């Protein structure tokens, strides 16, 4: 660091009574001895605040420093001067406008290229000031989020809507092409969901507006409302993209694709006529299949599942409620089976993730005559050795899938049951004989996706009486501490969260599993048609960890909370 720069930093701290000259010089010497910059050294020593460091950094270069506090307010008119994508790309934010002079906060006020781009985009004279990268990232994320962009674009689109149906907001049939701000609004809503890591988008018409909600980590999050005039137009656009009927108001299912940041996402579409219009749910598909090692299995559970799916025939099921990651588990399993010289065919309604190669994917479309029954019959004649059936939800599908499993095919599918042993009872109820099930079952994996505690703000939390009773915790359990930190192993979410988790206390999800395999003595029990509780007990004695067991292990590791696990499982 030059003598001039050092002198300016010392002047900054001393003139503001932040540090004495002797303190600064001592810190400078210690920083140099450790190969660090003095500002970074002072921050790590907690001698100065983030804003003081940023102010000093700006002062040494002769820049004006603009703090971007969380309570900073910027008008919508000022925000609209910059294109949302430009603001996010350049990481800049407008601060004030005086005539034609637009003050903009950026990380490097000397960057001529940024200044020229902003002048070209706004037609204003740009006056750059300095803000730190972290401050800018938070502020841009707040004022230029995709959610706010969607709201602003939606307002513009609403002004363009002039049809009588939109004015009266009566449920109507609107055919929409790829037109202007309507398209931009839908794109912004979808991209907002992708940025938020949402699994679903819910567009729900109300009497005065269109409600937009994202499902993030299994919880619904309200987004800015859209004008009620847009509801039939957005519905019409989605149905057009999904190739659904726009000539009648009926329940419909389909799929659309959306490209964003170089990736293609497949979204499942469900249209439901309601009182105030058509309610639409968009389920977000992943852009690419996970690897089996990314699913989150324990080492032993992953080994058992891999052994099961590498059997030459039989049926392997993923079970659980909607949104518990069953299809993701199977796609990861199919990925692991590719390259083994086996022909793989999937039958889904619709295909949730389009893979570029490695398997033949078939989307059931009963309107076009491609039914489950017909599709299964054709697949069985196509010499496929591995068959993925999207969901066993009808007796006929169950019979055909199990028949395929006992005639030389490996069948992967999903089923809605609460736990792994319950799958046998569910298939019995669908008319399958115990002897057939005993001959075909290879593995059943029950899965749930509780939320993961935010690593930045989680706090120690003593389990309450209800949790102690539900999980049968002992005094020894409650007294357990982490040997490395000496702190209690029991954690919960921070009451107010933090910036990293948007004040929720949780960020992301993690899986808990219950894997049941079928050695000979359990197959014999199935043949004997024993009660479900007997089958479950035998599976536990065979080493099966229940969802409660695996969830408790994840809690003990500090990954999630007892309350979160409790909200996802049934406890007798």
Structural class: alpha/beta
- Helical fraction: 25-40%
How far the N terminus sits from the C terminus, by CA atoms, comes to 67 Å
Q: Determine the number of helices (DSSP H or I, runs of at least 4 residues).
A: 24
Uncertain parts: 163-178
Might you state the CATH topology name of the largest domain?
Rossmann fold
Overall tally of structural domains: 5
Question: Can you offer a commentary on this structure?
Answer:
This protein has 572 residues and is α/β, with parallel strands linked by helices. The protein has five domains: 2-61; 76-147, Type II secretion system, protein E, N-terminal domain (GMP Synthetase, Chain A, domain 3, 2-Layer Sandwich), CATH 3.30.300; 179-284, Beta-Lactamase (2-Layer Sandwich), CATH 3.30.450.90; 292-450 and 510-567, P-loop containing nucleotide triphosphate hydrolases (Rossmann fold, 3-Layer(aba) Sandwich), CATH 3.40.50.300; 452-506, no CATH class. The chain is 40% helix and 21% strand. The chain has 24 helices and 21 strands. Helix 1 (3-15) packs across helix 4 (50-61), helix 9 runs antiparallel to helix 11 and helix 11 (180-196) packs across helix 12 (231-241). 37% of the residues are buried. Mean pLDDT is 88; it is low at 163-178.
Chain-wise SSE layout:
Elements: H1 3-15, H2 21-33, H3 38-44, H4 50-61, H5 76-79, H6 84-90, E1 93-98, E2 101-106, H7 112-122, E3 125-130, H8 133-143, H9 146-160, H10 164-168, H11 180-196, E4 198-205, E5 209-216, E6 219-222, E7 226-227, H12 231-241, E8 252-260, E9 263-274, E10 277-284, H13 299-309, E11 314-319, H14 326-337, E12 344-348, E13 360-363, H15 372-380, E14 386-389, H16 395-405, E15 410-415, H17 422-429, H18 434-440, E16 441-448, E17 451-453, E18 459-460, H19 465-470, H20 475-478, E19 491-492, E20 506-509, E21 512-517, H21 520-527, H22 532-541, H23 547-556, H24 562-566
Parallel strand pairs: 2-3, 11-15, 11-16, 12-13, 12-14, 14-15
Antiparallel strand pairs: 1-2, 4-5, 4-10, 5-6, 5-7, 8-9, 9-10, 16-21, 17-20, 18-19
Helix pairs in contact: 1-4, 2-3, 3-4, 9-11, 11-12, 15-16, 18-21
